[in-house]
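Late entry, evening session. Most of the bench is empty. Finally got around to the prediction I had been postponing all week. Sequence below, unchanged from the version circulated by S.P.
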Amino acid sequence: MPLTKWALWRSDIPFSMDLEDVASQSFQPHDEGEGLFGNGNSTIWFKFQIENLSRNNSLKLFLITDNGVHNANLHFFENNRWNILMAGGQTDYNQLAFKENFWAIPINIEAGSTQVFYFELYIQPGYQAPSHSILLVSPASEAIQRTNIRKGIAGIQNFNSFFLGCILIFALLTFIYYAANKDKAYLYYSLYLVCLFIFYIKNFEIENRSLIPFSFFAKWHSNIETLSTYASFAFYTQFIRYFLDIPDVSKRLNKLLNYVVWFFTAMLPLDLVVQMTLGSRTSLYLSRYLYIPFTLFSIYILFHLWKNKLSPYARFIIIGTLLLLLGIIPFRLAQTLDIEFAVAVWGSLRVFYMPWGGELYWYHTKTGLLLEMVCFMLGLAWKTKEERIELIQLASRLKMLENNHSNSTQSKKEVPPKTHELQIAQADSFLKKVENIIEGNYTSDQYSPYQLAADLNFSYSHCAHLIKKKTGLSISLYIQQFRLQRAKELLKSTDLPIKQVAYQSGFNNPAYFSRLFKETAGTSASDWRKNGNFQ
């Protein structure tokens, strides 16, 4: 029983218009054959009437909408007042007119009566989906529709559950890794995943209302969406800075990324002000136009990093981030250009209905996030492997220096401290110059490899190449080697607590110093001092 002939519609009625004013508006006939396509942040109104029902008992019908409609309200005048029945995926669960089917509204009409209805379809900001038909059907037809919808939703539920489970597991593992290593990169990545979980939990709840009936996120998702998005951008940018050692790679790029972090941090209170003054719809509308330029800017940064940071683990992160951005770009462009789209294959893909005809399939943003997380784990594994190899080289290097020092003390009564720490420096003027610069700065925990390169009047990449060629170590590990040598001298010649030894050797984190010392020396700093392992 389609809405034809006696159905009228209008799509340009303001959001704020009262129902009495809506009822006074002129509507135009709706032809079901034309279909109905709703763009984000719009409202479509239908006016129709049911009359002259020749049944002995009341007739129970269902008003059916497409599942692309996110809010649907049926208004009718009865008992001297306007009444409302609600449907749609974003409607509060306890307010649904028919909880067994989010997109159906039951209508009871007495035989022989005539009733006028106003049907309001609200397309949520950020969503665009085709709504093909609005039908009045029998209970049997509704049951068939409900079964078909549930089959599709079951797949989306499974994918959402898998996706959110992956986010939680990755966030937990990353935080554990941060707790063990005290590396800020992993803290920021875990916070980024928490923001994603907050952003996407609304989808899980909307499709799993039998499990989560309180509809908190469904009710407040518009407010949470922009805040969690800005926070996730800020945390992920910080993760990139620390994980790829941007402060050591490029001072200019590091400053640029710092500006990005401050921008999205400032957007959090600004967005709250917009929501409180202009509403969440305006907040979502404004944020949509930030995504495209920021995404293009991010791709530029990734290509710049690709040229300057050639470590395999860095490339894993760059590829993962690029895969994520390539999942976002078509979605945001479709929103901006008002191109209709819907989800497909359990929500892992999107189908875009092109203006010139045809359909374009592309992977969903959630699929891009999963690919990014896989690349992150590969990058983490590779970086851990590289760090382990460099630590072994560092331990071997320190052992060699200790042996050289032991041999030199047997032939000389006293050797000045500054002439025996790094014997290889005596044979190479470049390393001797490097040693002298580090000697004057190593106690500052803020002294970075980038600053060392600047003090040598070399580019960072050239300086890193020379030190790697001559010592087999990166700049960071070469400075660590120097600091560990100084720490061992303090352990040997003073009774300072381990914590003070760490600080005076240029380590701002005593726990990290203790772990590094044990990994390179094979024993803890306190045991090394206690047992007199000075050779």
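Two things to note before I forget:
Confidence is low (pLDDT under 50) at residues 1-5, 411-427.
The CA atoms of residues 178 and 186 lie 5 Å apart.
Will write this up properly tomorrow.
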